[in-house]
Amino acid sequence: MPPRRNHRKSRNGCDPCKKRRVKCDEHGPPCGNCSTREIDCHFSRPRPLPTNSNSQSPAQVVSANEEKQITERSSADPAPSSSTRLLELELLHYYSSKTYLGFSFGSNDKELWQEVVVQEALKSEFLLKEIFALAALHKATETPESDINYVACALEYQNEASALFRNALGNITKANCFAIFAFSIMTMIFGIVPSELTSGINNKSPLENILLLFEFQKGTSSVAGVGLHWLKSSQFGFAFSSGGRTIASNLDESYRVAISRLRDMNNSSTPLLNINNRRREIDLQAINSLESCYLGSNGKVIAWLAMAGQEFINELKHGEPMALLILVHWGVFLDRLGDLWWARDSGKRLVEELSGILAGLGPYWHSATYWAREQVGLTEAGHHDGIVEGYT
User: Cα 341 vs. chain centroid, distance in angstroms?
Assistant: First the structure.
């Protein structure tokens, strides 16, 4: 059991929730209420870091005031106590011996996550704290008898890392772009971990988590833009390698057919789609990127989420059916990673939630989710439950 770290409780809601006299989840900005209402969310005074399992979501966005406080505290605090040092040594060892295997999808990238990322973390504090956060979260899933303490550590390290990351994101250079991109992938994995694996780490639905992760990653796509040439020449080059229809034979038949249907649907003139040419381009880019998830390392499954464009994110936030359908198919790819500690049942839960949303839009959209539901075991093979023309 790890030693407890000094902490304070926080019960400060955001200003809009206080004004409306409703309970604030204190996640954000934006908090859950403000995110649902699509209104500006702000806190009139800075809040202390979360230190218990019911405090903040792993996908939380840290406020500007908190960023300043954490950064100043990081540079002004005295040396950590011996108990903190022992905890961090424990977590670093756990990451280097076990946790990293959850990101290593093939023999070629084991060295990347076990050695190269750790070496970069020694130069970038936000990445080092993210390693501590993930290792603590992993330990929580493996040691139920002490998971509350490890969850508390994971949340605190995650929020400290997030504040430091925001500062780094404002100045992307050749020296830090590798660490920034590694962090973006690792923090998404932190947010994907289903609530069933730990006590109170994540009480949001799969879609809410994805949208919060996207919100947090608003600026991360700039890494792939500003530092693209640096990342392509790094050991993360696999995430940017060209894929697609030239080597689509690497996909099994059902995946290729499903992706082909997505393209056909995106190009169709049906009034049910009701999208303009720009949105077709956005969705087509997401579909093409989705295909690359199975054209190489399974690491591309997470890389797809990390590199999603802001315009596609906006479509998801506004509940655009085509964008939701594309995310349903990504859920199938995520389900394929279910043997990894952080992905157990995550893909299936996401497909189930999104399929329910699309079913409410009518049989056309419900039919379009049939393949995904079948792949994750939500529909019996051969039971087409009223499939419309074009999806049989």
Answer: 15
Joined tokens for residue 332: 């199938």
Q: Calculate the dihedral angle through the C-alpha atoms of 52, 56, 61, 66, rounding to the nearest 10 degrees.
A: -40
**What global pTM score does this model have?**
0.63
What pLDDT band is residue 303 in, cutting at 50, 70 and 90? low
Q: Mind spelling out the 3-state secondary structure of 101-137?
A: HHCCCCHHHHHHHHHHHHHHHCCCHHHHHHHHHHHHH
Amino acid at 205: S
Contact 137, 376 (CB under 8 A): no
Q: Which residues have CB under 8 Å from 89's CB, separation 6+?
A: none
Q: Round to whole Å and give the CA distance between 351 and 334.
A: 10
Please answer whether residues 58 and 190 qualify as being in contact, where contact means their C-beta atoms are separated by less than 8 angstroms. yes
Rounded CA gap, 132 and 164, in Å? 14
Angle at 299 between CA 298 and CA 303, to 5 degrees: 125
DSSP 8-state secondary structure symbol assigned to residue 11: -
Which residues have C-beta within 8 Å of that of residue 97, sequence separation ≥ 6?
none
Those residues whose C-beta lies under 8 Å from the C-beta of residue 69, and which sit 6 or more positions away, are 46, 163
User: pLDDT class for 381, splitting at 50, 70, 90?
Assistant: low
CA-nearest of 287, 292, 295 to 250 is: 295
- How far, in Å, CA of 293 to CA of 314, rounded? 22
- Could you tell me the CA-to-CA distances from 114 to 173, 234, 369 in Å, in that order? 23, 15, 37
Cβ–Cβ < 8 Å for 201, 58: yes
Question: What average pLDDT does the segment 269-292 reach?
Answer: 81
**Mean pLDDT lowest among 56-65, 214-223, 286-295:** 56-65
